[in-house]
Amino acid sequence: MKNLALSYFLCALSFISPLAGLHRFYLGKTASGFFYLITWGFLGIGSIIDLIRMPTLVEEANLRALLLQNPQILQQKINPSTAEQQILRVAEISNGTVTAQMVAMKSGLSLLNAKNELEHLKNSGFCTKDVAEDGAEIYTFVGLTAKRPLL
What CATH code would you report for 83-144? Predict the structure, then answer.
C-alpha cells in the first residue's frame, strides 16, 4: 500500500530539486512521471495540482494494487449476491432440498446466518421445513425440486 506522507514528500522534492515527478513513479504512473521529470513538473504547475490531489492519487494507486492482487473483488462489486440468491443457488444444485449446514458450506455464509435466512424464507412461504429422523432440519424449495414427468 502506498503511503500518503511519502507521496507528499516526494512531490515536495520537485520544488527544491530538479527531480520532479518522483511521486508519480512511486504511485505507478511512470509515463506521467517521465513527463514531469523532463518538464520539471510542467514548470511546477502539475506538482502544485498533485499536492492538492495527493489523497486521491494515493487512493487510486492503492485501489489498483488491491485489484491486481485480488481481481474477484471487482466481480463481487459488479454482481453482488444476496444471501437469498446464494441459498437458492445451493438449493438448485441440491434438487431443492438443503440444510443450514449445506448452505453455509457451499455459499460462504456463516452457519447462524444461513439458518436465520432459511427460517426467514420458510416464514415468508418460499420453502417448507421438515425434520429428518436424525434431527436434521431440511428445507425444501418446491420450485427447485426435481420434476417427474406427468405421464
Answer: 1.10.10.10
